[in-house]
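FAQ: What does the model actually see?

It sees only this:
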Amino acid sequence: MPVNSRWPGATALLAGVLYAPLPVVAEQNPVVVTATRIATPEDRIGSSVSVITAADIARKQYKTVAGALRALPGVDVVQAGGPGQQTSVFIRGASSSHTLVLIDGINITDPSHPTGAVDFSGLVLDNVDRIEVVRGPQSTLYGANAIGGVVNIITRKGEGAPRATLTMQAGNHATNYQQLGVLGATGQLDYSLSGTHLKTHASSVTPEDLRNGVPAEADHHRNNTLSARFGLQATDTLDFSVSGRYINDRTDLDPEVGFGTIEDPDAELKNREYFVRGASHAMLLDGLWDATLAASYIDYNRRNDNPRTDPLETLQRTRFQGDTLEFSMNNDVYLNETHTLTLGGGTKRESMNNDGFSDYGGFIVSELSSASARTNYVYMQDQFTVGERVSGTAGVRLDDRDDFGSEVTWRLTGVYRHQPTGTRFNASAGTGFRAPSLFELYGFTPNNFGSAYRGNPDLEPEKNFGWELGLEQSLASDRLQLGATWFRNDIDNLMETVFDPAFNSTSENINKVHLRGVEAYLAVQPSPRLSTRIDYTFTDADVSDDSDRPLLRRPRHKASADIIYTPAGNTTIDLGAEYVGKRKDIDRATAAIINASDYTVFNASVIYNVNPDFRLEARIENLLDTHYEPADGFEALGRYILLGFTGSL
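And it is asked to produce this:
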């Protein structure tokens, strides 16, 4: 996405650095791209936005995208066990399939996933400069699946003299982590390349009370990721860029309870993903027209293998393959100092090709399927300002998919800033939708194996209307900041799985979902060496039917706290706590609805800068070795310690 030259300093803020100082306080008024597709100061954006910077990642020593998102307001991360296990991200109570994920502008929605959701388990922070999270419906700019919000992962852009950085860490659970990166610029060419290796022998995901006397075995995980980004400044007004990411990971699994042994030493998931995007960007008409033409391709390939070593053990041989090819064009036209018109459109083709079967002790489920769909879309947005205090956007979009028809979405946002008192009001309202996934529409191909999921070609898209109102106040020369946002999101045509007497299943549009709540924060900097922040989220999520039941795995109460202390100029200490309240879940052993317990997890990290090019690092996750289950029947990792260093030259 191009940088809007109307905002001074935007290029520098977005470029990123390989080795950055670690400030005590968060970057003030960062430039954000995701909310409007145009680089805009955060205080002029009407949507709720959180930004995780390169300095945040380095200071807290995050290793995965999911780990970095966990403490954000309005964001719930559910990981079914330790590293590499299935990881879902819910925004403001919406489903994980309502979270749209971008990497350098590439929509990485998995077309082979049953609901089209993105599994975050393999996304490490390789070469990542910043993560922007925009909450609330964003379909007007990003199309289907952006009902809950958008997570945009932006990698580093090379600049300056060539520079290399090496991080090496090791810890308990036989963990080793290495990351090597090189970036810089030479003449007209800029480049940024990085590779990450993560390997751990994590403890079993199955809690002791579900092992039935079977000894625990480590659930190993290995992740290798490569990331690259290149840019070529052909002329003063024309540049080209290519970015890509390759992921190859492997994780040990335990089969579902009730079908043989629980601990399983030979069940594993092998996953391979790659994403690539090429773009040309031109500044035309003396900078009045900013045009970007892009093409992207994503490919998923997942294999689930579980040999049978016991007569009742699950036998599984499945392969899920999905890919998407997309062409798009985005135009920003600077009509005058107060209006920027964005016009864009594109076309994409999604396809899936799955095969295999699962044998649950004689109950066989076919997993053969093949389907594709094409979507064409156009969108328009006006970003405006009225004086120094008022700004906002108004946009509309049309998506047309060949297997269910057209959807129109819209969005309005507004901001009022009263600078003399440090007061800021923001508001937004809009609509969104989630298209039925290829799997939900077409299911598994009927065969002689037995029961299967049957697709439903009559499914309607899930549609929503959402709004938010926010207030922020700065006091004591910005050393004290507080704010609150009220939100509501109503979703129609919720798709749910139903079963027939032969245990064949399908999806139907059944219910309406009501999501409402409050996000609040308090940030205090009592001294230049000390800062703290507390975030709290209340979410009321329920389904509108006779039972008025709540949605699963959505805590009503969630809070996080963070303290950053710099006792000396070369040392930084970061202490964090995350609280997840009680919530409804499914009992892994009986499939009954249960009340899941709340839990609190403490984390700590320390950095000692030996010199500007070398630092020692320590990170402890789950500091108190708390035993808890983010998803029932899947135990989280205990105390997790990593020690190491980062050096650059």
